[in-house]
Amino acid sequence: MRLEGKPVVEGRARGELLVTREPLTFFGGVDPLTGVVVEHGHELRGHRVSGRILVLPHSRGSTVGSYTLLRLAKRGLAPAGIVAQRGDEVLVVGCIIAEIPMMLVPSLRELCELGSGRLAELRVERDGAVLEVL
Amino acid sequence: MHLTREEELALEGYYGEALSIAMRVVVKVAEVSGAERLVPIKHAHISGISFRNIGEEGLEFLESLASKGARFAVPTTINPGAFDLEKRAEMNVEEDAARGQLRILEALKRMGAKPTLSCTPYLYERISFRDHLAWSESNAVLYANSVVGAMTNRDGGPLALFEAIAGRAPLSGLHLEENRVPSLLVDFSAIRSRLLESGLIGVAGLVTGRIAGSDVPLVCGLSFGSEDEVKLYLAAVGATGGTGLVLLEGLSPDLKHLRFSEHELERFAVDWSAVEAELERYSGAGDGVAVVGCPHLSRRELAEILDWVRRHGGAKRRLILFASRAAVEGLELSEPSVEVYADTCMVVSDLPKYAGRSVVTDSGKAAFYLASQGNAVRLVSRGELLRYVVGERG
Predict the structure, then answer these.
(1) A62 catalytic residue (yes or no)
(2) Is the pTM of this model over 0.90?
(3) Which of A79, B24, B28, B200 has the most CB atoms at less than 10 Å from its CB?
(4) Class (C level, CATH) for A2-133
(5) Extents of the domains making up chain B
(6) How far is B60 from chain A (nearest CA, A)?
(7) Is domain B5-175 given the CATH code 3.40.1350 in the classification?
(8) ipTM for the complex?
(9) How the protein assembles, per its UniProt entry (chain A) (predicted)?
């Protein structure tokens, strides 16, 4: 499967897909010291975002969440790449300062049907972005 | 998106790495929000500077920006930090946490920040109608837009930092006249006098925020005793709602300029049960420590409260006031039974370390956040809070 999207942060990433239909709170919802989702009631609770290509609609909560992405990256625990439906401020600012490749897609339907676990490659360039599920 | 030649040069790194990173962030956020161009700003206010939240990595990032030559292009103020710089011992701040916070402050100062450490920049900074600003801290954003008629989005702390360096913000959201038009009407007329008598203006703010969500409301039927009550009200709106602008009948300068037809707005008439429902959420703890100053107290409020407590024989229960350094330094009277802290507040400091986990407050915003941090919170009017403080222990 090959999905084209809108580039936000350039770069290349390879990793297992971690897919959620629910918005994720980074500040307070992802442990910056371990990369594990700790948000109460979230379907990804207990999963580790580290090294994954995280697929989500958008983030929510405090804008300190951008720093959470940075903290994860400095510890080598950040997602390898992010595919989102909406480029909210926390994700855009966070991915730029943490240097996490990011692209936007109009719909998450296909990826949600596919679910987590498959290996994928994200390639984001200035003029285009693509997610290839291997 | 259109960029000026100057902005392109900055983006490409002609003026150094730091400005290039800042410009990249601002341009990306602008692109994603559909802005056609950037707009020069007059002032920036940065939140999210607490060491407890951004950690060692956030601190190092700020230091590296400062070392790469990042400088704020416009006057820039900063939100409260984790403790009162002169009363660290009283607040039981640990050595490492203190050192981290001071290094953050130092990095921000190197970039040119005024170390105001207050959430009420609108009381001290010169901002005017239709100035474009890059402010984070929701109560400040709401005040600037709603009372001054300045234009700022409800930016996050990290974005405001980069906007301050770039001297620009995306021309989107509340920077555009067309997005400042109300889409609903919140009407307090039916309970106007009851609200006034009870002094529960902060609770009215929580109600407004819940109704408005992220939309711009027109609000009528509220009476404010002072500017200080307006800030208490707006701060509470910002806690329960995502909006950055509230159009207050008889007060908001935007209302003289915007064109819309009021009778077409969806109307929400507020009755007393909505106030009671909010109070119900914060009805814990009968005997907590009284905390006041969210948003930071103005000079006048601080003097009024201390004077009132003194005239009533001093505080019999613990009362902690939070204000900006500027307000505290201007103070001529003192009341030894009352604690006054500057540079910080009850929400961003480690409150349980010096005040326990049970509090009484007059601030809807503080009640909202302190409850979410797991404290037992009772929300009352300021009058009731002060009577509680000077009353004999039950």
Answers:
(1) yes
(2) yes
(3) A79
(4) alpha beta
(5) 5-175, 181-279, 283-390
(6) 10
(7) no
(8) 0.89
(9) Heterodimer composed of a large subunit (PMDh-L) and a small subunit (PMDh-S).
